[in-house]
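Hi,

I'm pasting everything inline rather than attaching a file, because the server keeps stripping attachments. The sequence lines come first, and each chain or strand is labelled.
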Amino acid sequence: MIIIFIIIALLLAGAIAWFFDNEKNNFARWFSLISLASLLLFFIYDTLFVAQTFTTFTPLVRFAWIKTFNIEFALALDNLSIILVILTLFLALICVLVSWHEIKTKIGFYYFNLLAAIAGIIGVFTAIDMFLFFFFWEIMLLPMTAIIAIWGHEQRHFAAIKFFIFTQISSLIMLIAIIAMAYLYQQQFGQLSFYYHDWQKLTLDSSMSFYLMLGFFIAFAVKLPSVPFHSWLPDAHTQAPTAGSVLLAGVLLKTGAYGLIRFVILLFPQASQEFAPVAITLGVVSVLYGAKMAFAQQDFKRLVAYSSISHMGFVMLALFAFNAVAYQGAVLTMVAHGLSSAAMFSMAGMIYSRIHTRSLAQMGGFWQSAPRMGGFALAFAAAAFGLPGLANFVGEFLSLAGSFSAHPIAVMFAALGLIGSAIYGMYLFQNSFQGPIKHTIADFSKRETLVAASLLFLLVFIGLFPNTVLQKIRIEQKISVQKASEQKISQQFVVQNINKLVMATPATIGRKDNE
Amino acid sequence: MILSWLPFYPLISFFILIIFGKRLSWLMATIVSVGAVTLSALSSFIVIQQLAQIDNHIITVQLWQWFSLGTAQVNFTLYLDGLSAVMISVVTGIGALIHLYAAGYMKEDENFSRFMAYMNLFIVAMLLLVLGDNLVLLYLGWEGVGLCSFLLIGFWYQDPANAMAAKKAFIVTRIGDTAMAIALFMLFSTLGDLNIANITELAQQQWLVGDDKAYWIALLLLGGAVGKSAQLPLQTWLPDAMAGPTPVSALIHAATMVTAGVYLIARMHGIFLLSPEVMSYVAWIGGLTLLLAGFAALAQTDIKRVLAYSTMSQIGYMMLALGAGAWSEGVFHLMTHAFFKALLFLTAGSIILALHHQQNLFKMGGLARKLPIETSLFAIGLIALIALPGTSGFYSKEAIIDSLWSSSTAGAALWWCAILGAFLTSVYSCRLFFLAFLGESRSEHQVKDDFSAIMRWPLFLLALLALLGGLFANMVEINLSNVFVDSVSSAQASSHSLVTESSPHWLHYVAIVTPFIGIVFSWFYFADYRQTSHSKTNHEVQYTANNFSDFFLNGLGFDALYQRLIVNPYCFLAKLNRRDIFDQIIMSSRWYVDLWREALVASQTGSLRWYAATLGVAVVFLLGVVLL
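And the predicted assembly:
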């Protein structure tokens, strides 16, 4: 129930903020802030302290929605979803805080869109009926496009349309795959079903499952994004308002990674195994290409956008390595990148609000006038280039260390990304905060310090105590004990185990539900 | 308990300095920052006493669990044995003296507290590096010192040259760090663990000498070490790193951080012993670097760059020792080098201040009369550097040279390298001394010599250490023997001995005499530099620029080579593809859609005649298709 409550509460809060907004008082932003904060606390309390049974993808709500097609309204939670929902709500708070003074027109409608997008994203992370999943997938897209198109920068319409078309075409492919799956289910079991656990009972011949897997894979790879489907992202990020970039980089990209885990790898273990070499290559290419492109940029936000592509390449690589350690690394990287890219985009927004440009050529020597800002910028850049002690390092380290035994060459190439990230990280930091003084700017206000400090706190906390998150994504010892000598473990075994342990046998749960 | 707090006093001080920043007075900031490092130094002194009384000579403290890699735990655990004991005493002891000096040196800087904060943070990272019980924690310290080095080299960041040097140092060492990271992945995937003691044990159990995996892992670790320790082929960042304030050069780029590579190899000696080939690579890298740096030092005009190349060359000696299997000798040289090189840098700092930030040797001259105390301190540092008998440098360097000839991984050729290196050391030291302290004054400014006590006393202590550091030989030897002896003997038992032939006894005499030959040679060769030149008024001591000396001045052309081979192509590629080729391909579909739109728009003219005509043509065409 809690998820339904949160989704409805978000939509309702958005509507209230919209209707009762009055440009004079700050009703919309305060109301959004307070409702998001209370929902975040409520969700953390409920999932982490009250109920402790989310090691499996547990359905919480399940009732018929569109009976003709046997479509259900079913939501479920497991630890992966919980982590991502918490991340989403937390970053939503950051979004509200960074939009505080930036959004000056149609304030109420803006917060409605923001909250609606959040609601859609939470739906994506928790839907267990595939039609419902697709429904939320579209729901999150529309307000996001609106945010870019209405409150974005100079080329906002172009960027919004590009973003919209990319995601629409890719999700169309996914829709075909979803419908095909439902019909295959009908062929084998006599009735249509969009229910996730039902689908796991399907037996698919290998070529069919390969094409279906590909349908899902493309949709999620566009969202992740992976080279060569990435080019919507630099435009969308650059043109979106600060909160839009934070939301895009922090959470929206994670829906791609989430989809890869939940649907591509777990529904089509065999097919994704066959596809792994391609996916891993794409991951490595994304890491290197993103890092190289980031270095070439002259726009602060565009640089960070390309660095996101590079970081999500690590996630792709780690997921398709089919290794327990790498899997933990991938999830941790998702969280870490969510925080660090949100921090970087907030920083970009704060700089923009002071000098009204994103061009790196116009920046320089900020440290002199804004030392606090400089300290935070340095810490966030350090997180991006994987300084140990911050969250990103642990995620990338686990990803690469876990993937190495099966794919040593790919990991070696991906490790070159560490050099690439140092190059663009230094380039970004030195161009904006060091060098000759080009602008004298005001240092952080209290609100901005709060944003930066809370993000940095989490980055350091997760970097030093990653077990707090990793425990949630721990996979039983059995499969982790892959010593060097036991490398010959058939990969199929690993897949089954990941399947079994990560999601704790969704198939069996599905069966229980039916009984 | 004492150990678990030891690395964190400077961290607390770092936070105090960062949070209060400029609100702290100079005195407060000094007390906090220097006090914190002194506390660490006292704690190290105490724990080293404790260490001697413990049977297995190892103290470990687990602070908390970091993360787990499969079944292997990666924890924040501090591990103190003989080797880390030597390292922490150098880091905290020399660190405290340099901090004290830096407080005087940087007193006038408006960002004084930020400077001291970075210095403190550096000490924290360095202590974690040498105390980490697993390679990931070591890597944390490793990257941490890299970041602090970046911050401190670029401390005066408004000058683009300094920012450039900082960036270069960070990125070049990052290349080595990446090799090291790959070594870690490889170790984890083959041995399933990253705890250093476990790795050493597992490796000795599972691999024979000459194993392929040991070879690659050792080679990659060596990659990390050459990056951090500025050895061939990643040595280019160190001379430029001299852009930082001089106490930084003393602390980071002479005494501690640059020797981290030496520490890494010594710490992982269990793996290196399994791969004699890599051991000899280590030796050759050391040997070649020490010659290269020695030659480059001969042509430098900047006093700090002479010292930087000299550091590079001395680390070459350490590498040479490690490659020859003379672990304790290498680490002992690390320690004595920290004494005399810190002394040299700090004294150079005083001189530079006295000359109003003049670093060019050719603008100095005749300082012996104006700054007698600094001159004698610098002379003490130099005689230790060139290893005149009795000084600390003598004990360690002679021990290294002694071990080379008979080692199977080093051998006679490298022994000659070391001797030639010793000769070069002595020549460039004399050149430096003559240019700066003897001869005619060429300074444009008045020399100011009003040094405060805190800029003098650390120097006296360091001078004492540089002279008498040899007395520690026994203590260090005992400490280190616990670390190295067991593994060396076990590896030797399993394979051939590292000692192949006995060395002839004339070697020793040659090694002792070489520095003197260097001095005598310089006395005549650089006669111009030392003579007061009132007799020939038109004679000027100047840097003679020609192709040959320029080549040496620029570090034997490595910078230019890398610029052409790596930097320019990368920047070129990045610029070439700034528009993102994938984006352009995808966006070309827009052109296609636009084309159709244009075509269709063009057909909607609104003119009835045109519509009727096209309708007619189309009907005829369709009828034709149907009928035929």
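Strands of chain A lie at 58-66, 71-77.

If the labels don't parse on your end, tell me and I'll reformat.
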